[in-house]
Amino acid sequence: MQAWFHDHPVISYLLILAFTIYIFNAVFRMGRLPILKEVIVHVIMAIGCLVLLLLQLDKLPIIQCMAVAVVMMLMLRARQLYDKRRGKGGDKPAGRAEPR
Fold first, then answer.
1. What is the pLDDT of residues 85-99, one digit of tens each?
2. What's this model's pTM, rounded to 2 decimal places?
């Protein structure tokens, strides 16, 4: 798989960029930004992804690691939706007793 990603750097870059944008939006975004700041953030992310592409082309498993992170985030999201649908989305964390 590493050899295929090395032979297709454009696809590798697009995957890295897509994973980075998803992770940023899912983890670090607090709210909506003004459009100019939004564009600046995404341009800086696109430039930063070039560094990750260089590491990927240098045979480090960047795409695979990011894919694992995205899959874990999707599993968490699915679990949250499942708990909400089942009516278990209360205020107290699971496994903790109520203080007396």
1. 998 655 555 556 556
2. 0.79
